[in-house]
Amino acid sequence: MNITNNESVDFPDYSTGEVCETTQQQLNELLEQEEHVEQATDDLAITDIRTVEGRPVQLKDIQPHTVVTVNGISGQVDHLIEAGLLSKSIYAGNYDDYLDDAEDFFEVSEEPEDTQGTLEHINTEALSTANQIEDVIGSANTIDTLTAVLAGEDLSEEVLVGLSESYGVSPERAEREIHKATEQLYNDFADYAESELGITDADHFSEWVAYAVNQDLKTKQLYQQAVTGALSGDFTLSQDLVQQYKQYYRMF
């Protein structure tokens, strides 16, 4: 088709419903998402949603392993949530709900001076030690290390050597500090879980977690979320894991 500079092209008006119902629905979904992306701030905009194989995915069909692009960063949904780049409300399947929740999720709020959230339940020395460990070996290795201690397993020699070299202490001293911090954080969580979450037997809960994380991906993700929260001084991120535990044992 040849078009001169003075000619105009009349494209079909898809808003009139002059296409099949399925096509019209797909067009509406695309137009709706485009509108949301334009209205969203740069930090909240989701500009692409695909499977790991690269096939397009609708918002309502998002799964933990779905790859999304938010603020120019692409990754699996569960990883971006863990990194703090996505709100869990992305699973609601509605972009408006996601944006409403994300506004609060990404907003940095100032806590009143008379409260420290759940920090009041946490031994600051143990938290500081855990944060120093995380600075050296990274978040993922720290979670694995704390998990190993709780399970009574031997610690990685690589981790102990890395901490030993970084802080100028013996591997034996590094191991003692890891055990001490882990035990204190566990006791702090047990107190919080009993007083705030209704868990009266922390040891039973811990045993269930140790079993369930190897059986169910969702539980493993919730456990990682809980530990990540604890390392930042926030036990409230363990609530979803506790709820999973209660549902498993029909504890309502």
Show the helix and strand layout:
Layout: H1 21-39, E1 46-50, E2 67-70, E3 73-76, H2 77-82, H3 95-106, H4 124-137, H5 139-150, H6 157-167, H7 171-196, H8 202-212, H9 217-231, H10 239-248
Antiparallel strand pairs: 1-2, 2-3
Question: Which key phrases capture this entry?
Answer:
globular; mainly alpha; 5% strand; single chain; 252 residues
Question: What can be said about this structure in brief?
Answer:
With 252 residues, the chain is mainly alpha-helical. The chain has 10 helices and 3 strands, in the order αβββααααααααα. It has helices spanning 21-39, 77-82, 95-106, 124-137, 139-150, 157-167, 171-196, 202-212, 217-231, 239-248; strands at 46-50, 67-70, 73-76.
Describe this structure in words.
The chain is built from ten helices and three strands. Strand 2 and strand 3 (73-76) form a beta hairpin. Residues 36-43 and 105-117 have low confidence and may be disordered. A three-stranded antiparallel β-sheet has the order 1-2-3. Helix 4 (124-137) crosses helix 7 (171-196) and helix 6 packs across helix 7 (171-196). The longest helix has 26 residues, at 171-196. It is mainly alpha-helical and 252 residues long.
Strand order of the largest sheet: 1-2-3
- Please describe the biggest sheet, giving its number of strands, its sense, and whether it closes into a barrel: 3 strands, antiparallel
Gyration radius (Cα, Å) is 24 Å
- SS class: mainly alpha
Mean pLDDT: 75
Q: What is the number of helical segments per DSSP (H or I, 4+ residues)?
A: 10
Intertermini distance? 67 Å
